[in-house]
Amino acid sequence: MGRSFAKGRKSMAFEVAASNLLLLILLILLAHGSESRKMSEKYGNNLELPSNDDEIKDEMSQRVDPSLMIFFTLKDMKVGQKIPIYFPKREPSTSPHLLGRDEAASIPFSSKKLDNLLEFFSLSQGSPQAKAMENTLSLCEIEPIKGETKFCATSLESMLDFARSAFGLESSFGVVTTTFLNKSSATFQNYTILEMPKEILAPKMVACHTMPYPYAVYYCHYQESENKVYKISLGGENGDGVDAVAVCHMDTSHWSRDHASFRVLRIEPGTLPVCHFFPADHLVWVPTPTSS
Ligand SMILES: *[C@@H]1O[C@H](CO)[C@@H](O)[C@H](O)[C@H]1NC(C)=O
Ligand SMILES: *[C@@H]1O[C@H](CO)[C@@H](O)[C@H](O)[C@H]1NC(C)=O
Fold first, then answer.
1. What is the structure's pLDDT at 14?
2. What is the pLDDT along the chain (292 residues), one digit of tens a residue?
3. For 103, how many CA atoms within 13 A lie in the half-sphere containing its CB?
4. Are 133 and 110 in contact (CB under 8 A)?
5. For a designed S-S bond to 261, which of 20, 71, 176, 246 qualifies (C-beta 3.0 to 4.6 A apart)?
6. Which of 55, 65, 190 to mutate for ligand 1's pocket (most ligand atoms within 8 Å of CB)?
7. Beta bridge partners of 283
8. Residues with CB under 6 A from ligand 1
9. Domains of the chain, residue spans
10. Which residues line ligand 2 (CB under 6 A)?
11. Which of 112, 108, 88, 89 has the alpha carbon at shortest distance from 215?
């Protein structure tokens, strides 16, 4: 069963997903502080970069890959502020399929099984999709860093179990996501903050990032350090309306100096909280306030 649907659905969606790998790895590495340099060196060589090579960050010319344009600081969080932002725009119909727990459990999820998996999904060795799968499996298998708890969910049920374990059995929780009210095809454009951003008061948050894989895989994680979650209403210069979710990491003093956010924002580690927007298909789980 898994096989027939996976074969049918794999091609298009998976290509699209693989091209956003740089952004995904970037978001995941946000939490990884001084580890990030080592890890980006480890994975950097295998990355499928966006196709516009000339835009990719070049140390000498100070140009920045547009897909890194997701960062801002708390100082920018005011009505009327203009921020250039990159939002990958994937049609929901091309997103990889979310499996049920039983079906997910029937397919191995391990880099040791990569060869079998490539055969199972009819992907050739060395293809961009094969590399993306390998990267996803490696990122899922890395030990979390100190203060972080992580889990790769291959079904909705396992993602909910992870969120429940983060918030405690008695807590109820919900999901917030970036949503497009209407959208143009421009992935990178200037947006203006339309209303005062609303903080979603959450003592803890679990971020789940979609990973390139033939079916839906979410890299979910949370940290002990303080984060704040916001809903921000944005108007794009191309007519896009976005109800965006952003997270601010309040303490960046332990992050690597090489972290992309410091380059983009031109700030030093630990000087200002670093905030970033979430792409539309990533999920942020937060406890819902208990009514009393
Ligand atoms: C955003 O606006 C500035 C000028 O206000 C312009 O230089 C820049 O190219 C714009 N960025 C994008 C992505 O359109
Ligand atoms: C989005 O909606 C606004 C107002 O509803 C409209 O003016 C604008 O043209 C729309 N943009 C696109 C890209 O459809």
1. 61
2. 344 444 434 444 464 444 455 555 555 554 443 333 333 332 222 233 333 333 333 333 345 677 778 999 999 999 999 999 999 887 766 778 889 999 999 999 999 999 999 999 999 999 999 999 999 999 999 888 778 899 999 999 999 999 999 999 889 999 999 999 988 888 899 999 999 999 999 989 999 999 989 999 999 999 888 999 999 999 999 999 999 999 999 988 877 788 888 988 999 988 999 999 999 989 999 999 775 5
3. 14
4. no
5. 71
6. 190
7. 208
8. 84, 188-190
9. 3-287
10. 182, 184, 239-241
11. 108
Q: Which atom of ligand 2 is nearest to the CA of 238?
A: 13
Pick from 182, 189, 242, 243 the residue to mutate for probing ligand 2's pocket: most ligand atoms within 8 Å of its CB: 182
Amino acid at the residue 251: D
- The per-residue pLDDT for 199 is 96
